[in-house]
Amino acid sequence: MLHPCESTPRIPPRPIEELSDAARATLERIPGAGLKGEGFPRQVLGQLLHSPELLDGFLAWWVAGKTGMALNGREQELVILRMGVLYESDYVWRHHVKVGREFGITTAELEWLRSGGFEHFPGREQGLLVLTDALVNERTIPPDVWALHGCHLSPRDLLDLIALVSQYVLFALTNNALQVPLEPALQAVPGLEAGTESGSG
To answer: Phi/psi of residue 89, each to 5°?
Structure first.
């Protein structure tokens, strides 16, 4: 089931103006333009504002990861887009289609991410995607996947991948469980169901 699949959010979001000064300063450090301006994820942040202390701490971790992980920007976006697929979260997917394009992700690659066509990606990227699927579906890295992909990454690569997947578990589950609606500017971005123009499933 593709989410959001209800017409209204289950909990009204808090006004984004309630963001703390620390949270605003943290968000300014997000690299690129895709999550700023029209792409700013105000709907999900408005939900997380119901727990402001959690949000402040999470944002610091999230943005630090974007700028400090061993995974480069393109690698991070490939993983995040795949998380959108695995969690059937159109909100995550559409936001990160815009960001992914900033990092060179093509229309063909978006389709491969939807379909699981990892063989089209070069070795390191393919490994990160296979490991992402394992972490979500198996909740571990099985021995055969480790032998093929995990053992070729550095310890820091692996820890950063686990952290990135964990961050988007929070985002995707928040979006899905609370039926967070898409921002109007995201309606025109191709959704998980190719060619869709809304988040309804």
So the answer is: -105, 100
Domains of the chain: 16-186 (1.20.1290.10)
Provide the whole-model pTM: 0.93
Our CA angle for 75, 60, 12, nearest 5°, is 100
Instruction: Count Cβ neighbours within 10 Å for each residue of 98-110 and write b for 16 or more, e otherwise.
Output: bbbbbbebeeebb
Find out whether the peptide bond into 4 is cis, omega within 30 degrees of 0. Answer: yes
d(CA 104, CA 122): 14
pLDDT value of position 195: 46
What's the rounded Cα separation, in Å, for the pair 32 and 20? 22
Q: What is the pLDDT of residues 137-150, one digit of tens each?
A: 999 999 999 999 99
CB 185 within 8 A of CB 39: yes
**Burial status of residue 137 (CB atoms within 10 A of its CB: 0-12, 13-18, 19 or more):** exposed
